[in-house]
Specification:
Blueprint lengths: L1 E5 L5 E5 L11 E9 L2 H7 L16 E8 L11 E4 L2 E2 L27 E2 L16 E4 L7 E2 L6 H7 L2 H11 L7 E5 L3 H12 L4 E6 L2 H9 L4 E4 L6 H8 L5 E6 L9 H9 L8 H9 E9 L12 H6 L3 E4 L4 H13 L11 E4 L3 H10 L7 E4 L4
Parallel strand pairs: 10-11, 10-13, 11-12, 13-14, 14-15, 16-17
Antiparallel strand pairs: 1-2, 3-4, 3-8, 3-17, 4-5, 5-9, 6-7
Helix pairs in contact: 3-4, 3-10, 6-8
């Protein structure tokens, strides 16, 4: 089969790989019909995440058609159209029993923290991802779900991570009616978090980024106020000024490990890998939220030390909430919002790229070329 393959930082290409096979009675093999490149894939592409091995196939956002099922699979059959959450989880361990699907204890040798994730380095289990023609789906009776007849394919694809994660980020922020919510980052997750904040009762939503085309999308898609942090000497002072010198009630960090805005932090975190990523956005969030407020962290960070302003968070009495999104928990409410017309997920899709051109897609997304916000990958499997 044809699949995207990692060959080192900034080097990906499409190669022939062995077809995935049933390795466990509860596995399924899915023929991928749509996949996507996620902003967190860029952390792998840039060589920022540890134990990203040459030959690995990325891609944790995908939908497809069931090609083969293991002998113990009961909920799926060959030919079913399925959407697959990015979490790989068993459904029965201590954590899964509590709805913490992203922290499953049975799918990742490194499961002291995160569980299993498709296509996201060996720190999350080493499973090949869906930027390919076919993918092995473990615990097929637990994770995948049939795509509802009324749900368009691209909308289903975006529910497998980006939309669910953005919604979860707004959920973790614990928004109360009338709250001022600030979102750092106008990528897909930030845009969805900002749009979701309105659904949870926000009275004001502000999105902060430094790319004008993404801020424009925040205004049209998320109906948010916007601030370009590159136009201000101190974005925290500007945030205080625009909130009556108090700060936002809730702040969502939807940036993560490669935040710009502070040269030293960016170089030590995103370039030299001396931290688990650049904590600029997270520190801005801690400084920009009001005392007693809540910071929700959706941005991806590496597992090593980061120079976070934890003392300031303590002294301000902040609540910090974070996790990888337990995707399937979000689907019933998201389906309701989509069906009722409150959100149309694929409105943020800007590019549709054949699998054979995925190297160009990564470069375009990484370099922020051609107004790229969300690229969808179309495999060529028959």
């Amino acid at each position: 089969m044809r699949a995207m393959v990692y060959r080192g930082p900034y080097k990906v290409r499409v190669e022939e790989k062995e077809m995935p096979r049933i390795e466990h009675p509860n596995d399924a093999i899915v023929r991928v019909t749509l996949a996507a490149i996620c902003g967190s894939d860029l952390h792998l592409y840039h060589g920022l995440m540890p134990d990203t091995r040459v030959g690995h196939t990325f891609g944790h956002e995908f939908i497809g058609v069931v090609e083969q099922v293991g002998p113990s699979v009961q909920n799926l059959k060959v030919g079913d159209r399925v959407m697959v959450p990015f979490n790989i989880y068993c459904g029965s361990c201590f954590f899964c029993a509590r709805g913490l699907f992203s922290n499953c204890h049975n799918v990742n040798p490194n499961a002291t923290a995160v569980g299993g994730i498709y296509g996201y380095s060996h720190t999350t289990g080493g499973y090949d991802g869906g930027q390919s023609e076919f993918v092995r789906v473990p615990f097929a009776d637990v994770g995948p779900a049939l795509i509802p007849e009324w749900l368009e394919d691209e909308d289903a694809l975006l529910c497998t991570d980006a939309l669910a994660t953005g919604y979860f980020g707004a959920q973790l922020a614990d928004i109360a009616e009338g709250d001022t919510v600030a979102v750092f980052g106008a990528g897909p997750v930030g845009l969805y978090a900002a749009r979701s904040a309105w659904l949870m009762g926000a009275g004001r939503v502000i999105v902060i980024d430094h790319l004008d085309y993404r801020l424009e999308k925040a205004r049209t898609f998320a109906h948010a106020e916007t601030i370009n942090f590159a136009e201000h000497d101190d974005i925290v002072v500007e945030m205080k000024r625009t909130t009556g010198w108090i700060g936002a009630d809730r702040v969502v960090d939807a940036v993560g490990a490669e935040a710009d805005g502070n040269l030293t932090q960016h170089v030590t975190g995103a370039k030299l890998k001396l931290q688990g990523g650049s904590p600029v956005a997270l520190n801005w969030a801690i400084d920009a939220v009001r005392k007693g407020g809540t910071v929700s962290v959706m941005g991806a960070y590496g597992p090593i030390f980061s120079a976070v302003k934890f003392g300031d968070a303590v002294n301000k009495g902040l609540t910090l909430r974070m996790n990888q999104c337990p995707v399937k928990r979000q689907w019933p409410r998201l389906f309701e919002h989509i069906r009722n017309g409150y959100i149309k997920p694929n409105e943020i899709v800007t590019h549709r790229i054949p699998l054979e051109h995925i190297a160009e897609g990564y470069h375009m997304f990484s370099a922020k070329l051609d107004g790229c916000i969300k690229p969808v990958i179309v495999p060529s499997a028959a």
